[in-house]
Write a structure and sequence with these properties.
By secondary structure, the chain is α+β, with helices and mostly antiparallel strands. The chain is built from 8 helices and 35 strands. α2 crosses α8 and α6 crosses α7. The two termini are 40 Å apart.
Length: 631
């Protein structure tokens, strides 16, 4: 995690310059590396010779000029050593960055898009930048990685959004597409920013300075690891459900005295204490004779925080944190005709524990599905003190910029796809300025002041009608939308493709398709293309009514289901908002509200997880959330 060092005077190439790479067409593409100071370097490519020389530090750059799309081509690089590649492509390279929803691999969405398992196209390739952190300045290179072609062997590790974007792009332009996947789950925007970009944020830089100290950083990591291990070991040692010979996950364990509990729901909603520690759940499922011994899938929705699942006493899977879907494979021979026991040990670290609703809780075997929702037996294992939150290196300012972006900065790219903001919702107010500044300094770092920057606005998420909600996701969406004031940017609205109960919604294809529309308009010059849903422009007052005007109306505003528009609210002089009646009239939206005689402000989709929105343009693109009142 410290800044990297290399043997001086030794010929070397960065990880991203390797066999199978995609270089940006029409862009003065560059290859680079290191050698002895003053060493001449020659690159043989497409029948031409390109030359360069290592500087006093041993670094060299060779420009290949503006290359037309095509491939595969051979390439030979000659310095103090010679390296040859046979599989080099010229096409469009897109940098896909942000946090977990950009990082999310195809393997997490393949149940929704099963056809993707067979995807194969040698002209679509991904370079995955391994996660790394550095605080003492920019790194010379990334951790080792490679360019991988799209095929059934590799597809499950591809970024889902990156893949779906690349597939659409290839369909439209028929040139090779390279995806540089550079996203880190839970990353703060500040972690992707340089010291220069944060120069007027001294508190951020002081935090980064702390982590420059190797002993401080390593000591913190070690102490947190020990604290977590000690907490878990103490819990396990005190949990009677884990003690031999009468473990609570055994199929022969007698749970007849245990109380019942209806799943799925939060534990405290069912009368269990809102405490941390371990909780046990057991259920019996009857399996018919013809399914005896068959392999199965156990689906346990989403569980907060961690869990281990057993079938007939056999451990079939464990998940250590709250976000991944629980899909466990039950091996052949575990299930039997008649009664089968499913046991789940839930461990709560610090969050409100439970089984999240509106997720699948099923046992699937031999084409049959057995619902697991309903009555279970339950018992408290051992209550414990809360496990404190760890410090996450991917949230410390400058760390990801230095270790992941800076090393690949000589790459020429067509544009950036950005999906991030979830981890900044705790404090959305500074995000607008930070995000605009990040865009500016990324453009500077990547050597293109007009580099297209396309971003995903956060989708709908969190519990509906939560009286304590602070609408921080709505505020973060607003901060993201402010970046549209920056030239050569575009926003893919995702307010209709999230899941209120999942931070990582599976509907990644429509997000990627909206990004591709934005790319066609901003990066490929299709200026007349409708690439966005309606965006609020201005409002007029007409007595008790408000008339809203929009940009990006396309061929017209519509209600997607023919019903009155939902999600609009209006406030009067007192600042209290009420649901508004909304209808489309001459490509404007007219609002009225029985409770308000003197309208002052309006807002649309202004909550963390708005439901059943139906305001679109005729091109099928959703309207962006907005409010006219700024705090």
């Amino acid at each position: 995690m410290a800044n990297d060092t290399f043997s001086a005077g030794k010929f070397r190439l960065p990880a991203i310059i390797c066999d199978g790479m995609v270089l940006q067409r029409d862009s003065n593409a560059v290859v680079w590396g290191w050698d002895k100071p003053g060493q001449s370097v020659q690159v043989h490519f497409r029948g031409h010779l390109f030359s360069g020389k290592a500087d006093s530090h041993g670094k060299w750059f060779v420009s290949l000029g503006k290359q037309e799309a095509g491939g595969p081509f051979p390439m030979k690089i000659e310095g103090s050593e010679t390296v040859s590649f046979s599989d080099v492509y010229i096409g469009d390279v897109w940098l896909c960055s942000g946090q977990s929803n950009m990082e999310l691999p195809v393997s997490r969405v393949c149940r929704t898009y099963p056809e993707v398992a067979h995807a194969e196209n040698p002209y679509i390739r991904e370079f995955h930048v391994p996660i790394n952190f550095a605080y003492n300045g920019p790194c010379e290179d990334t951790l080792p990685s490679e360019w991988k072609p799209l095929n059934p062997e590799n597809v499950m590790s591809f970024s889902a959004i990156g893949l779906f974007f690349a597939e659409r792009l290839f369909e439209d332009y028929h040139v090779p597409v390279g995806i540089i996947a550079m996203a880190v789950g839970g990353a703060h925007v500040e972690a992707w920013m340089s010291r220069k970009a944060l120069a007027d944020r001294p508190a951020k830089l002081r935090l980064a300075d702390l982590f420059q100290d190797d002993s401080f950083r390593e000591g913190l990591i070690q102490s947190e690891l020990e604290r977590e291990q000690n907490w878990q070991q103490a819990l396990d040692a005190a949990d009677p459900g884990l003690q031999e010979p009468n473990t609570w996950y055994s199929e022969t364990f007698d749970d007849s005295e245990w109380p019942t509990f209806e799943l799925p729901r939060y534990l405290s909603d069912g009368g269990l204490p809102e405490k941390n520690g371990s909780f046990w759940f057991r259920k019996t499922v009857e399996i018919p004779e013809e399914l005896d011994g068959k392999p199965a899938e156990l689906l346990l929705g989403r569980i907060v925080d961690a869990d281990t699942a057993y079938v007939n006493g056999i451990n079939v899977g464990t998940t250590g944190y709250q976000y991944p879907p629980r899909v466990y494979s039950v091996p052949e021979g575990v299930l039997k005709a008649g009664k089968n026991t499913i046991a789940v040990r839930l461990v709560s670290f610090r969050n409100k524990a439970g089984f999240i609703t509106e997720k699948p809780y099923e046992l699937r075997v031999g084409g049959h599905t057995f619902s697991l929702a309903g009555t279970w037996k339950c018992h408290i294992g051992k209550l414990s003190e809360m496990l404190p939150e760890n410090v996450f290196l991917h949230q410390i300012p400058t760390g990801l910029f230095n270790a992941m972006l800076s090393p690949i900065s000589p790459c020429r790219v067509k544009g950036v796809l950005w999906y991030q903001g979830e981890s900044n919702t705790g404090n959305p107010a500074p995000y607008a300025e930070l995000f605009r500044r990040m865009i500016a300094y990324w453009r500077e770092t990547l050597g293109d002041p007009e580099l297209p920057f396309l971003f995903v606005q956060l989708p709908n998420y969190l519990e509906r009608e939560n009286p304590s909600a602070k609408n921080r996701w709505a505020e973060l969406r607003e901060a993201q939308a402010d970046a549209l004031s920056v030239p050569n940017t575009a926003m893919a609205v995702a307010i209709d493709v999230g899941e209120w109960n999942d931070l990582h919604p599976v509907f990644k294809r429509p997000v990627a398709e909206r990004l591709e529309l934005a790319a066609r308009k901003v990066a490929y010059g299709e200026k007349d293309l409708v690439a966005s849903g309606p965006i609020f422009d201005y409002m007029e007052f007409n007595g008790k009514a408000v008339v809203l005007h929009f940009k990006e109306i396309g061929s017209g505003l519509v209600s997607s289901d023919g019903e009155p528009l939902r999600g609009f609210e209006m406030s009067g002089p007192g600042g209290v908002y009420f649901p508004a009646q909304a209808h489309i009239e001459n490509n404007t939206v007219v609002l009225t509200c029985p409770q308000i005689n003197v309208p002052v402000n309006v807002r649309y989709a202004w909550c963390d997880s708005p439901e059943k929105l139906n305001f679109y343009n005729r091109e099928g693109l959703p309207a962006a959330p907005f409010r006219t009142e700024r705090e």
